[in-house]
Amino acid sequence: MDGKLVQDTQMAVNKGIFDKCYRFDLAKGYISSGLYPYFRPIESAQDPVVVMYGRRVIMVGSNNYLGLANHPKVKEAAIAATMKYGTGCAGSRFLNGTLDIHVQLEEKLARFIGKEAALIFTTGFQVNLGVISALVGKDDVVVLDKLDHASIIDGCRLSYGGLRKFRHNDMEDYERVLADSKGKGTLTVVDGVFSMEGDIVNLPALVKIAKKYGSKIMIDDAHGIGVLGKTGRGTAEHFGLEKEVDLIMGTYSKSLASIGGFIAGDKDIIHYIKHFARPLIFSASPTPASVASVSAAIDIIESEPERIAALWRNTYKMLAGFKGMGFEVGLTESPIIPILVGDDILAFKMAMRLQEMGVFVNVAVSPAVAPGKALVRTSYMATHTDEHLDIVLDAFQKIGKEFGVIQ
Ligand code: PMP
Fold first, then answer.
1. Minimal CA–CA distance to 148: which of 184, 181, 188?
2. 240: which of 18, 200, 233, 337 is 20 to 30 A away, CA to CA?
3. CB 124 near ligand 1, within 6 Å
4. What residue ranges define each of the domains in the chain, with the CATH number in brackets?
5. pLDDT per residue over 198-217, tens digit each?
């Protein structure tokens, strides 16, 4: 090839890489028609009422289930840790980034979850990337529920092992997949509470089948911790199956009022993950403020069980309210209540009308849910009052009728 041809070819290739960005106009179309419910700036804390565009809006799109993200004691703990340790750790847990409060939080989380050891990461997403890729080698298989969270799927992509999926919460299909994977090391990874649909994994059946085929179990309890179980320990506590689950993963970005995540299990497994999880080793450790917030949040969860009771009272009120009006909410059994609408544009329209009426909701479209299964996702906090919730139900009744979703 002559020099000019090489140069021309390289230019064509270099231009090509950005072509898709210039061509991508789907989101721009929704933005210009005022139907884009993403990246909306909030000007206040994640409370039951937030400020958006200078207006007060009732928030039913937050994962701050226990209402702790703006709790005075949690904020004081974050401020005190910042004053003592500064704003960042300037390095990974592996090297200079481990503080005494990281180690203390690991001990506290292990005790809280009821496992021998715990390991903390900087985000929940990184926990799933790090744990799955560290444990699943080239002769192993990860077995997933089809509706598992994106971070679990990406963890599998980073591992060298095989990936098999079973139909959502379908235990017959789970058994078929495990039977097919006989002879391999298998790790079953499931959400405890499914993040968009709000339903709970059928853990008793899953444990039985996993035992039969010798599969190890990891639960992503991002939406279970602080929500399920008598004392908020999550899905395993809810079913009384703490001992049968090998690994429990949690995030701080929901009930634990901060940002970060952890994995809890037997100490030898945690020790191994600590030395092989690349998102742990090659990324900076959680800030002092986040670590201290989580520690304070756990103290409140343990000393104020009435928060979990209030969360469930609000959940039952909303479930009854939506069902009574004729909305389809699927199989949810948690403070995540989806309104199933199917069509993406209808979901966007509903969310924007609700915003005009002073209610913040989330919209999930593909790939967060299956194509054609768009939903308006609502979620509740212990700190919502009846007055907030009645306003939300009222607004839904109006727009449900306006868009022909209910009669
Ligand atoms: N797992 C599930 C089920 C989640 O919903 C999320 C967050 N949406 C994550 C993992 C990732 O957690 P984080 O926000 O802490 O990165």
1. 188
2. 337
3. yes
4. 33-62+305-402 (3.90.1150.10), 72-303 (3.40.640.10)
5. 999 999 999 999 999 999 99
